Amino acid sequence: MGLTEVVYKIRSQHYPLCQYTERAQGAKVLVSQTNYDADHKAGRFLVTLVGPEQPTRDTLQLFDKLFDRHEVVRTAKDTVSLRCSASLERLRDTNSPAAFALEYFGDTAVVQPGVIKQGYWHARLVVTGKVDLADMLGAYERGLHGGQYDDFKLIRIDDYDPEQQITGAFSENLTPKQLEVLKTALALGFYNTPRSVTLDDLSNIFGISKAAVHNRLQAAERKVVSKFFA
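Request: output the structure for the sequence above.
Response:
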């Protein structure tokens, strides 16, 4: 069957998170889809806003409209992380660029952590099977003409070969829970110097103990290092 990698960037001038990164200097939003319920057509996300205090605060006031539910799991200087959930209908109604990936691919795609910056949502998907490029672009065109999006650029669509990608080659040996914690820790700056998040922060995000987070990260790191130097 094979896998296909789809990389694109998309903008909606009506979507508040795109507006936030376009208007506030240096602002960006990190988005990790942690779950997609195909039966109920709803997604869960970890959303982190990084930017100036006032624009960030103003944008947070809109989260009641953007998501069905949300809760703050971490705050720091210029950074706020929230655990959010939203139905596909809510995402579509708010012109969220996330709606297309969920609506078109559903649970056949693994949505990699993405970033919204300078008004564009940069997305990367790994899709089961081949992708009909003409059909996919046609769906995007309908969204563009319908006013849901106002710009779209396909960056890459190609066969996905995990053995040719470091993260893919390493991640195949990790359990889903180890991979989820490791990717989130990396995206939120746990491995930065100084660290942007702590084990306590990750513990709050995943709703597990600090020891459990530490054990998953340690096990994942051991597998990655062993794979690299084997």
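The radius of gyration is 18 Å.
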